[in-house]
Specification:
The structure holds two protein chains of two kinds. Chain A has a single domain (52-278), classed as MetI-like (MetI-like fold, Orthogonal Bundle). Helices cover 74% and strands 1% of the residues of chain A. Chain A has helices at 2-8, 12-36, 54-59, 62-95, 98-109, 116-127, 132-139, 153-177, 181-189, 194-223, 225-232, 239-247, 253-278; strands at residues 40-41, 47-48. Mean pLDDT of chain A is 86; it is low at 1-5 and 283-287. By secondary structure, chain B is of the alpha+beta class. Chain B has helices spanning 44-52, 94-104, 109-122, 138-150, 168-185, 196-202, 220-225, 230-235; strands at 4-15, 18-29, 33-37, 59-64, 67-68, 79-82, 156-160, 188-193, 205-210, 213-218, 240-244, 247-251, 266-276, 279-286, 291-297, 308-311, 319-321. Chain B has two domains: 4-225, Rossmann fold; 250-321, OB fold (Dihydrolipoamide Acetyltransferase, E2P), CATH 2.40.50. In chain B, helix 2 (94-104) crosses helix 3. Classes of the chains: A mainly alpha, B alpha+beta. Chains A and B meet through helix 9 and helix 10 of A and strand 6 and helix 2 of B.
């Protein structure tokens, strides 16, 4: 890292395309979005070029604050579950032999061959009244009537976890793969039980993967509105859905921009907080 | 009376159908420096890992001070390892690395600090406690790995080719230092290497291993001058193996006589001359077609390729060996 920075001075030409790309496709759109958020909606179509803070004031209304709270809650819950499932999966996958690694990897990659949207519709078939899940549970006499899971909070959580889990698994896997197993052996040799070796060696050394996994799942889970729309019906409204609606049905681009800006600041703060709590330098560049 | 600290009894081990150890038995004395010497894949590392508890033998037993530790977890054995790649914990500084074992044993902090400082002094890196492993040179990492192991005062210290990654000069220096350390600490060292010079330099005894079998165990002198098998003769000092009827004899290249040295009785043709490792090596073909190498210090000798000459050796320099 340090040497890369030092060399950077003489290699700025090589970095130029990257800067152009970043400015063109990341910095400018964000700037545009922020500018847009201070304008007002035009009567019929488009925006009026008059400065206003009205959009941000509107976010402070209980309705929208509630949406933010709801989104955060769902994001925390989904990310938590994804960590619990994804970390062990990725960690143990990295430790398996080549054949099993391939098999486990295939299990993760196959779903990606189909559109995420279509896969979510698949969950409707599973969750709907008298759907696959109900039939199985009733067939096994675990429940005696349909659970009515579709369009419920748990269904949305399952959808979130299902959609974002691969990112966590792959992030953890890539860092667990690099974990030199002789370090674990050294720790065992020096007197650590396998659990202690995990806490003092494996976990700290795979933390970068876990952290980037959390970033990769937490941020999208704030914005993945279509999951809540498809599996939650209209009952669960997330910030992403509101932005989507304001942009399409509401035709209020400035308000959508303001919502996006707040969402972005919020997630950025989250990352910053997380970095501070864990004292990790691994997310350098992200914030 | 012999004071045996570690005993291996008929250890067998296979990996996926391949027999790696075929019944290895060895008794190791207290405070001894013993080297397992052999080519890569001979089973020496597996033997070490079985002693450390990182591998379980299929058959046989391991006894530490008479107590059966065959199936004991690695953390329950009073044995520590210096790993080939050092295996320093990259997320801890040098002091935390060295103190790791003591911290696991829940030793009070002040005592850990004292013991760590002592161990660092032992390897002459007192000032390096706050450094991270990636800020150390190869030789320094090596010493930290040793300090991290010996700070726990193990009964037996296992060293898996610890000098393999160092350059020649540093390796020589570390050989002496390790030997000094072993004398000073009085700990039993079980040392693994494929380098015969290293083994001869450092060891009280050498166990030569080949294809999962101990070919010979003895002092460096015994191994060098009285090789039991043709493998040992060839591996330690690259001796010539000559066949006479049913028997095989080992003759060291420095003992092959030529250029009128007495007694030169055998007809031979000079096949090749080459200079390697500070020595001139001359390859002869005997009348029966067998090849034999002579070596001399210097870069050339008064002998030309293709010439028909007489060579020979003293009878006591032809050691009868078992074909392996």
């Amino acid at each position: 890292m340090r040497s890369a920075v030092k060399k950077g001075k003489s290699n700025w030409l090589l970095l130029l395309p990257m800067y152009i790309f970043t400015i063109l496709f990341v910095a400018l759109p964000i700037l545009y979005m922020f500018l847009l958020s201070f304008l007002s909606r035009a009567e019929v179509w488009g925006v009026d070029f008059t400065f206003t803070l009205e959009n941000y004031k509107r976010i402070l209304e209980p309705l929208y604050l509630g949406t933010f709270a709801e989104s955060l809650k769902l994001a925390f819950l989904s990310t938590g579950l994804i960590v619990l499932i994804g970390y062990p999966y990725g960690y143990f996958m990295a430790k398996m032999n080549a054949v099993w690694k391939k098999r486990m990897m295939l299990l993760i990659m196959i779903p990606f061959l189909t559109s995420a949207l279509i896969r979510l519709y698949g969950w409707i078939i599973v969750f709907r009244s008298n759907g696959v899940l109900d039939k199985i549970l009733m067939g096994l006499h675990i429940t005696d009537k349909p659970l009515k899971l579709l369009y419920s909070y748990p269904a949305v959580v399952v959808g979130m976890v299902y959609s974002l889990l691969p990112f966590m698994i792959l992030a953890v896997y890539s860092s667990a793969e690099k974990l030199d197993f002789s370090l674990v052996e050294a720790s065992r040799d020096l007197g650590a039980s396998s659990l202690k070796a995990f806490w003092t060696i494996s976990l700290p050394l795979t933390l970068p993967g876990l952290l980037s996994g959390i970033v990769l799942t937490f941020i999208p889970s704030m914005g993945l509105f279509f999951i809540a729309d498809i599996l939650g019906g209209n009952k669960i409204v997330l910030v992403g859905s509101v932005i989507h609606e304001q942009l399409t049905k509401g035709r209020n681009q400035p308000f959508a921009a303001a919502l996006s800006a707040v969402l972005m600041i919020l997630t950025s703060l989250m990352i910053r907080l997380y970095k501070k709590l864990t004292g990790s330098a691994e997310l350098e560049g992200l914030m | 009376m012999k004071d045996i600290i570690l005993q291996l009894n008929a250890i067998q081990k296979s990996f996926e159908g391949t027999e790696v150890l075929k019944g290895v038995s060895l008794e190791i004395n207290r405070a001894e420096f013993i080297t397992l010497l052999g080519a890569s894949g001979c089973g020496k590392t597996t033997t070490l890992r079985i002693i450390a508890g990182l591998e379980n033998p299929d058959k046989g037993s391991v006894l530490l001070e008479g107590k059966d530790i065959t199936n004991l977890e690695p953390n329950k054995r009073n044995v520590n390892t210096v790993f080939q790649n050092y295996a320093l914990f990259p997320h801890m500084n040098v002091a935390d690395n060295v103190g790791y074992g003591l911290k696991i044993k829940k030793m009070p902090k002040a005592e850990i600090a004292g013991r760590v400082a002592e161990a660092l002094k032992l390897v002459q890196l007192e000032e390096y406690g706050k450094r991270m492993p990636d800020q150390l040179s190869g030789g320094q990492r090596q010493r930290i790995a040793i300090a991290r192991a010996v700070v726990n005062e193990p009964k037996v210290l296992l060293l898996d080719e610890p000098l393999g990654a160092l350059d020649l000069k540093l390796r020589r220096q570390m050989q002496l230092e390790l030997k000094r350390l072993q004398k000073q600490l009085g700990i039993t060292f079980i040392y693994i290497t494929h380098d015969q010079e290293e083994a001869i330099n450092m060891s009280d005894r050498i166990a030569v291993m080949n294809k999962g079998v101990l070919e010979q165990v003895g002092t460096p002198n015994e191994i060098y001058y009285q090789p039991r098998t043709s493998y040992v003769a060839d591996f330690v000092g690259n001796a010539n193996i000559l066949h006479v009827g049913e028997d095989a004899f080992a003759i060291r290249s420095e003992n092959v006589l030529m250029n009128g040295e007495e007694p030169c009785t055998k007809e031979a043709q000079v096949v090749e001359k080459s200079f390697a490792g500070g020595q001139l090596r001359i390859l002869f073909r005997l009348e029966d077609g067998q090849l034999i190498t002579a070596s001399r210090y210097g870069i050339d000798a008064d002998i030309s390729v293709g010439a028909q000459v007489k060579i020979g050796w003293l009878p006591e320099h032809a050691v009868k060996v078992v074909e392996a």
